[in-house]
Design a protein that fits this description.
disordered C terminus, alpha+beta, 15% strand, binds FE2/S2 (inorganic) cluster
């Protein structure tokens, strides 16, 4: 969140915007330059979206816009109108019934402090939707824009492949090998 003086805040242009988040429509009166990450956290109380660097570097604030992962700290909330925003709460919000990608993190021990995890969850969910049979190399590439200071990434890579497994893909290099055999 960018700090500003009380005078600046009072004179800042505002607009009424309509946002669709996790399948629900919201009408909000917000400053034109308010970031999507701040609107999600402050106005909609969806605090699962974390804010780390605020500069598009760490990936903690990643949400999906029409199914594609984006940095919510790099886009004004007003720009997300006419798109469907999905946060980590929209992927799974029930500890008793985690989404497959969340279960994959549990199974793979893919988190420690958990600060980075919502960004990984939204990134990996979108990636495995696009690539149901990721190789380890592809899994590494998919998460290369998200930073984690705790885990060393190995178990997050496993969580990518475990997600694929839970969705019915093998999540291993065997898919590539089968492709190779077929083409020979
Ligand atoms: S907080 Fe958005 S990329 Fe770091
Ligand atoms: S689990 Fe702590 S930053 Fe990733």
């Amino acid at each position: 969140m960018t700090q500003m003086s009380a005078t600046e805040a009072a004179t800042e242009p505002r607009s009424t915007i309509r946002l669709s988040v996790n399948g629900k429509d919201h009408v909000l009166d917000v400053p034109d330059r308010k970031l999507l990450s701040d609107v999600l956290r402050q106005d909609l109380e969806l605090t699962g979206t974390h804010v780390g660097c605020e500069h598009g570097v760490c990936g903690a604030c990643t949400v999906q816009l029409d199914g594609d992962p984006i940095r919510s700290c790099l886009i004004f909330a007003a720009s997300a109108q006419n798109h469907e925003v999905t946060t980590v709460e929209g992927i799974g919000d029930d500890p008793e019934n985690p989404a497959d990608v969340q279960q994959a993190f549990i199974d793979s021990h893919g988190l420690q402090c958990g600060f980075c995890t919502p960004g990984f969850i939204t990134t990996i969910d979108a990636f495995v939707n696009e690539n149901p049979h990721p190789s380890e190399e592809e899994a590494r590439e998919a998460i290369s824009g998200n930073l984690c200071r705790c885990t060393g990434y190995q178990n997050i890579v496993k969580a990518v492949q475990r997600t694929a497994e839970l969705r019915g893909g093998c999540g291993q290099d065997c898919c590539d090998r089968e492709d190779t055999e077929v083409s020979q």
